[in-house]
Amino acid sequence: GSVLEIRGLHVTVGEGDETKEILRGVDLTIRSGETHAIMGPNGSGKSTLAYSIAGHPKYTITGGTVTLDGEDVLAMTVDERARAGLFLAMQYPVEVPGVSVSNFLRTAATAVTGQAPKLRTWVKDMRTEMEALEMDAAFAERNVNEGFSGGEKKRHEILQMGLLKPKMAILDETDSGLDVDALRVVSEGVNRAKANSSVGVLLITHYTRILRYIEPDFVHVFVAGRVVEEGGKELADKLEAEGYAAYLKADADAA
Ligand code: ADP
Ligand code: MG
Ligand code: MG
After folding, report:
1. What are the start-end ranges of the H helices in 114-244?
2. Does the beta carbon of 22 sit less than 6 angstroms from any atom of ligand 1?
């Protein structure tokens, strides 16, 4: 199995007088087949964590390490991270005019594995995965992200994950803006990837709703740029009932 290790991660955004520390020492270890939910209030730095692991240039790592099977992720280019087996759902959020979903995914698979997948098996794999995600076959010929609805964007992300078979997947707010049917289909896609390839999943959310469909092995409460509590899935129920107020107060009192 694989292991993604985040140790003492500190991250800032902005420059000069505007520099703001967002991550203040994040520690997390994710192994193959495990699902870790990160839950926290808006603005606590959850997306910053995801973007920092993704290698987004806006975020400056000021301390700590991120390794995948001992390899230094922070020293890798964005492409190298993907080739190493990291999947970040928001990696390609922009519209890619003139590139069909089908060509885009095949190009991504080629970039990740180092060779173009055989056309016949590829078409078959893509069709199977799309059917499972209850996607219309015509979707494959649409231009990437052009006019995608929220639900289509999320399905496209999970389609990518299913086809690219990463070692570790980081899903940021995969549940936001989904109706119940789309949430179920997307969640089943994640569960399939877990069953088929034991992907390790870092599931970032501020609602407990998705955790009814994707059962986490571990729940981490994330407040003001740090993990402040860890537990099993029962912790999500506690958060649903009590919210984050007590954690926010404890953080403010400590400051
Ligand atoms: P979350 O995903 O938990 O809602 P974010 O990581 O998006 O939190 O944001 C955490 C904090 O960092 C917020 O106060 C946000 O305004 C700030 N922030 C995030 N990205 C940037 C950026 N690129 N420039 C300036 N501030 C940012
Ligand atoms: Mg937010
Ligand atoms: Mg966010």
Report:
1. 119-132, 150-164, 180-197, 234-242
2. yes
Containing domain of residue 49, as a range?
3-254
The CATH number that applies at residue 208 is 3.40.50.300
| Residues contacting residue 255 through CB under 8 Å, at least 6 positions apart | none
Looking at residue 5, its pLDDT comes to 98
Segment among 10-19, 168-177, 219-228 with least mean pLDDT: 168-177
Q: Which ligand places an atom closest to the C-alpha of 46?
A: 1
Model-level ipTM above the cut of 0.90: yes
Count helices and strands in the chain by DSSP H and E runs: 8, 12
Which atom of ligand 1 is nearest to 44's Cα? 3
Residues around the ion ligand 2 (C-beta < 5 A): 42
Question: How many CA atoms, within 13 angstroms, populate the side-chain half-sphere of residue 84?
Answer: 24
Ligand 3 centroid, distance to 47 Cα (angstroms): 4
The position carrying tokens 């010929």 is: 141
Q: Tell me, what's the pLDDT at 26?
A: 98
Q: According to the model, what pLDDT value does residue 94 have? A: 56
What is the average per-residue pLDDT within 177-190? 87
Nearest of 1, 32, 27, 25 to residue 11 by alpha carbon = 25
Residue 122 backbone class (left: φ over 0; alpha: ψ -120 to 50; beta: rest) = alpha
Q: How many domains does the chain have?
A: 1
pLDDT tens-digit map of 47-106: 999 999 999 999 999 999 999 999 999 999 988 998 999 998 764 455 667 889 998 899
